[in-house]
Amino acid sequence: MKQVPWFANLLLGMVAAGTAAGCTVGSGDPLRGDEPSLALHDDALSRELQNSPVHHAGLPFSRIGVMMDSDAADDVEIATSTDGITWSAWQHIRVRHVEANQRSAFNGEIRLAQPANFFKLRGTPNKASFLRLDTVDDERAIDWEDGETPSNAALVTARFGNGYTFRTRADWGAKAVNCSGSLNPKKITIHHTDTPASNPQARVRSIQEYHRNDRHWCDIGYHFLVDEAGIVYEGRSINTIGAHAGGANTGNIGIALIGSYNNQDPTTAQMASTAKLVAELSDKFNIALSRSTVKGHREVGTTSTDCPGNRTFAKLASLIAAANGTPGGSGGGTNPPPPEEPTTSNLVTVDGFIYVGMNPSERLGGATVSIGTKSTTTRSDGTFSLPGIEERIQTISITKSGYVDVRVNRNIGVSTWVSTGLAKQASPTNPGTGTASLQGVIYRQGNSSDRIGYATIEVSNGRTATADANGFYIINDMAPGAVTITAAAPSFATNSVTRTLTSGTTEWGSVPLQE
Q1: CATH says 347-422 is which class?
Q2: I want to staple 18 with a disulfide (CB 3.0 to 4.6 A). Which of 142, 229, 414, 515 is the partner?
Q3: Cis peptide leading into residue 308 (ω within 30°)
């Protein structure tokens, strides 16, 4: 393997600490060296799993975040090494989140016992169809959400969706978040997610979970996402600075096209809706559109990346022309308010399956699935069908004796497929265990980017942790329920926050401390 100059290693290490999920170095090229990030699809992934090429991540990394579409979470294994000669045991990811459909989309990570510089993959070809991997060094982690302080600017409350279909966070089932750092938009950056484009509502949820749980950001990094049908999904609040272009997030709106567009074109509907969205943003924030204000991710920030894909990048000029040709697209105009979307009373059948914990292959029969006044029981293979459901945002309740009840919100007008897992109730002999996780950062009061390293954390259920050098902590295998998190550090007053843990999910419990 060729020697890499120390300054190149430094840059690559910075990239390893902050590459946004969706935009990768060397995407589709498994033999390229110095890759802090890797995204492989279909045949490229199958070749990778058979050949196990060695990848070099620049600087040492302490954990690996993974997004993967496969039949089971252990279809891909990862080994790490400090020198490329002596290797760790093969490990599979610890699952944090799963979206189950025809093939499951897993989010998870591997935390290393000691820092490593190299990684390689193995697995059975064709079991997994997509894999996204990011190496992260928590000691050197770049805070992608730095760079802009809260201002007194009025919050943007205007509706989006002028000439295109717009799905709010409630529509796609976003987790509630509490992000800091205001955004004063002056420019726009276009991305692609470099993921499969199928099941976009589930994909957006998966990306949010990956950004929160594995990248350790407060929310999904993009402000908007656009699927192949031209539907626009609301991402991070437009009032909040994003986490999509390391070193260039200040004043920057992030728009991601859902899919991978190095070797295929984004759809006509996708580009048309993106142009209308860009025009609307131009109007709302007085952004005069040109190639100096609308760029591809590869043109901004500190990350070496092929994002937004070669095919999308080639269309940026025509995208801007289309946006400028839309009323309000030249900046400073006034768009008329979009008409309210008509409500429907169409009735559909909701299908899906219920499984145990985070393992979609372990199906759960005999569970009760309820939507409104209608309910059914899962078959022996965990599947169910529930007809007569109205096309709107619905709350789905799943219960079974011996398992923790689950309630999820889904927009049945967007998708009629619902699958989720039920965690087994904690044993009376071991009441402190479960499938919930708690994570957060300890920071100086009033400035969430000023982290307090090595603070101690005590949870009211008896669990404890010590924050790392970047102020981050995580506690796994917790029972669901309300907890109080108390943090302490030398020279700071102790402080506490309360959170409610849910089985199979990760809750943020960041704590500010004051000197």
Answers
A1: mainly beta
A2: 142
A3: yes
